[in-house]
Amino acid sequence: MTDRVVLAYSGGLDTSVAIGWIGEATGAEVIAVAVDVGQGGEDLETVRQRALDCGAVEAYVADAREEFATEYCMPALKTNALYMDAYPLVSAVSRPVIVKHLVKAAKQFNATTVAHGCTGKGNDQVRFEVGIQTLGPDLKCIAPVRDLALTREKAITYAENNDLPIVTTKSNPFSIDQNVWGRAVETGFLEDIWNRPTKDVYDYTDDPTFPPAVDEVTITFDQGVPVAIDGESVTPLEAIEIMNRRAGAQGIGRIDVVEDRLVGIKSREIYEAPGAMALIAAHKELENVTIEREQARFKKTVDQRWTELVYDGQWFSPLKKSLDVFVEDTQKMVNGEVRMDLHGGRATVTGRRSNTSLYDFNLATYDEGDSFDQSYARGFIELFGMSSKVASSRDQRLGL
Predict the structure, then answer these.
(1) Is there a contact between 320 and 310 (Cβ–Cβ < 8 Å)?
(2) Which whole number is the average pLDDT over 229-246?
(3) How far is 384 from 369, CA to CA, in rounded Å?
(4) Quick one: pLDDT band at residue 167, thresholds 50, 70, 90?
(5) 8 Å CB contact between 330 and 217
């Protein structure tokens, strides 16, 4: 029986050419798998047919939008996941769901190998291959661009020589990856980190310099998940899509960062994540209202470690699963509403209310009705500063 290779297929030049390239290099049949994570663009049936026209023996299309939003984006929201305090894991959080469907297809079509279109310089090769070997330990991995010397120039020549049904003459200066959680742009003139991004870099967001009128939005959360916007019930996918439109119209969620890649190099990345950044801002503020102080302090450490694990391709790791349990426990009381003004590139919280709030007006107020007994403060301060006081006395005695 001829070997079979499952290829993560986007419909673009490189993965279209890879179908025949893999066949010639390995003698294997290629099954193309396209996973819809809300990236937009071409209809997936068009993408599927192109894969068949390029020589795939099977073409499998998975609509994973709801799954991606609910099972991958929502955990990222619950952890307020921002790598280097900036990047909301746009690409990193999508790779595990793609891997899941690649491994599923490999089992369904009796394939021995999974292929992806990543280079040897980026993070995604790690995310794909670590995920694949975790979910399918018996599967092998290949990367045509990295392992089979498939360059863009060779891809264009191959496509022209074989009359493949793809446009090969248009040159896009950028490398773009997008899904419903956001959009990532790199390469081209952006590699000079002094260069300012031009207008054509952006697609999910409008220029915030001359914004429309303030857009006031109220987001309702249940256990850390947005369940309604302005009183209208939404699914996680709908919440992200609505906030992408509304926050994007105000230019919210533009990120320009020089990022520490897993492979050890620094890379300039431009991200657009209007919905993600607005939802994270709202979620953070609701946590401030509903999570106890020490729990909240520790959660920041967990959030950062969770984010690093996912960035590093460790979605399916034991530690990440353990951290998930802690995060889920913290979200039980993250219920309520957050009101925000979306305007001119900023999502500004203007109100919050919750039936599970830890904010006690009578304890917080300085006006009539104050229930805080200020006489407790003196003894508290004495005890709180005791260890420092004792240490300081010793140091002064020793002349230190």
Answers:
(1) yes
(2) 98
(3) 27
(4) low
(5) no
pLDDT in tens, 264-275: 999 999 999 999
- Taking the C-alpha atoms of residue 306 and residue 224, their distance in angstroms, rounded to an integer, is 16
Beta bridge mates, 179: 182
Radius of gyration of the CA atoms of the chain, in A = 25
| Structure-token pair, residue 329 | 């426990």
182 with 114, same domain: the answer is no
Cβ–Cβ < 8 Å for 35, 59: no
pLDDT at 16 over 70: yes
Residues 370, 99: Cα–Cα separation, whole Å: 56
- How many CB atoms are located within 10 Å of the residue 168 CB? 16
pTM (predicted TM-score): 0.92
| pLDDT tops 60 at residue 241 | yes
Annotated binding residues for L-citrulline, written as ranges, equal 87, 123, 127, 175, 259, 271
Last residue of a domain, one of 128, 148, 171: 171
The DSSP letter of residue 70 is I
Is 135 in the same domain as 189?
Answer: no
Confidence band for 28, pLDDT divided at 50, 70 and 90: very high
How far is 280 from 81, CA to CA, in rounded Å?
Answer: 8
d(CA 48, CA 46): 5
Helix (H) or strand (E) holding 115: strand 113-115
Name the residues annotated as catalytic: 14, 95, 124, 175
- The owner of tokens 């926050």 is 247
User: Smallest Cα–Cα separation from 322: which of 342, 336, 306?
Assistant: 306
The CA distance from 271 to 277, in Å, is: 11
Whether the predicted pLDDT of 169 surpasses 50: no
In a domain, 363, yes or no: no
pLDDT at residue number 45: 87
Q: Is 339 helix (H, G, I), strand (E, B) or coil?
A: strand
Q: Could you list the residue range(s) of the whole structural domain that residue 389 is in?
A: 370-397
Binding residues for L-aspartate: 119, 123-124
- Pairwise CA distance, residues 388 & 196, whole Å: 49
Please give the average per-residue pLDDT across 61-70, as a whole number: 96
Task: Extract the annotated binding site for ATP.
Answer: 8-16, 117
Distance CA 115, CA 156 (A): 20
Asked if residue 263 is part of any domain, the answer here is yes
Nearest CA among 358, 12, 10 for reference residue 165: 12
